[in-house]
């Protein structure tokens, strides 16, 4: 009797395994209502900017398909990466179509986005006429390298809690996944090479200098 029960359970388990393996729907790294983008990365109407009022600017453009779009206000005079300028305001990013996020219009290949003259911190920019509008289509993240390379001073722990980028390098606060345990603040240059550990300080550092 016991053998029959074991055989029945084994048969059921084998059927379940077969169903899972033969399923057409595989796991994806997102859940509904996310939308698959159309790989049509071209403008049918190039981006245009028009002043429509005090501290109000209208940005319009049209695309060939429901692809992913990112719109930003950029200061070309400040460059952390040559030729890219510095983003002053992130206006919107996402896949166009039925579930297009604000400020984009849903189910529309023609888009109109407005800028209120403020930066990401909510302050009015003093020289808006010196800024540029950047509209990007078809973003594709590509792995470059691990920060710190093969150095023993690369990022410890399994979570990055904060990143600050400035002219003299990149500062990263990282540590354990639960926020406790060993945490560090390390500095890297803009090519990803380790420069220094800011925290914890070296054991040889006098208390009055820590």
Characterise this structure.
By secondary structure, the chain is mainly β. It has one helix spanning 2-22; strands spanning 43-53, 56-63, 68-75, 86-95, 110-115, 132-137, 159-166, 169-175, 184-188, 194-199. Among the domains are: 43-137, Sandwich (Immunoglobulin-like); 159-209, no CATH class. It is elongated.
In short:
The chain has 210 residues and is mainly β. The model is unreliable at 1-27 (pLDDT under 50).
Uncertain stretches:
1-27
> What would CATH call the architecture of the domain at 43-137?
Sandwich
Q: Could you give the order of strands across the largest sheet?
A: 7-8-9-10
CATH-defined fold name of the domain at 43-137: Immunoglobulin-like
- Main sheet properties: 4 strands, antiparallel
Number of helices: 1
Q: Determine and state the CATH class of the domain at 43-137.
A: Mainly Beta
| H/E series | HEEEEEEEEEE
> Which bin fits the share of residues in helices?
10-25%
Report the principal-axis shape.
elongated
Question: How many β-strands, per DSSP?
Answer: 10
Oligomeric description of these chains:
single chain
Rounded Rg: 25 Å
Q: Cα distance, first to last residue? A: 73 Å
The mean pLDDT is 79
Secondary structure topology:
Blueprint: H1 2-22, E1 43-53, E2 56-63, E3 68-75, E4 86-95, E5 110-115, E6 132-137, E7 159-166, E8 169-175, E9 184-188, E10 194-199
Antiparallel strand pairs: 1-2, 2-5, 3-4, 3-6, 7-8, 8-9, 9-10
């Amino acid at each position: 009797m016991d053998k029959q029960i074991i055989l029945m359970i084994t048969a059921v388990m084998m059927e379940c395994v077969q169903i899972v393996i033969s399923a057409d729907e595989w796991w994806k790294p997102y859940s509904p209502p996310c939308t698959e983008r159309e790989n049509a990365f071209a403008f049918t109407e190039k981006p245009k900017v028009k002043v429509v009022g005090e501290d109000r600017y209208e940005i319009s453009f049209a695309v060939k398909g429901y692809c992913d779009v990112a719109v930003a206000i950029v200061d070309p005079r400040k460059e952390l990466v040559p030729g890219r300028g510095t983003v002053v305001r992130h206006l919107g990013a996402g896949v166009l179509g039925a579930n297009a996020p604000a400020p984009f219009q849903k189910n529309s290949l023609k888009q109109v986005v407005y800028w209120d003259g403020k930066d990401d911190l909510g302050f009015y920019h003093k020289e808006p006429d010196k800024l540029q509008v950047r509209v990007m289509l078809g973003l594709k993240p590509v792995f470059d390298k691990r920060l710190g390379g093969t150095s023993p001073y690369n990022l410890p722990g399994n979570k990055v809690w904060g990143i600050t980028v400035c002219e003299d390098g990149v500062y990263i606060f990282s540590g354990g996944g639960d926020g406790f345990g060993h945490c560090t603040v390390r500095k890297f240059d803009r090519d990803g090479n380790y420069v220094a550990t800011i925290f914890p300080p070296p054991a040889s550092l006098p208390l009055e200098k820590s």
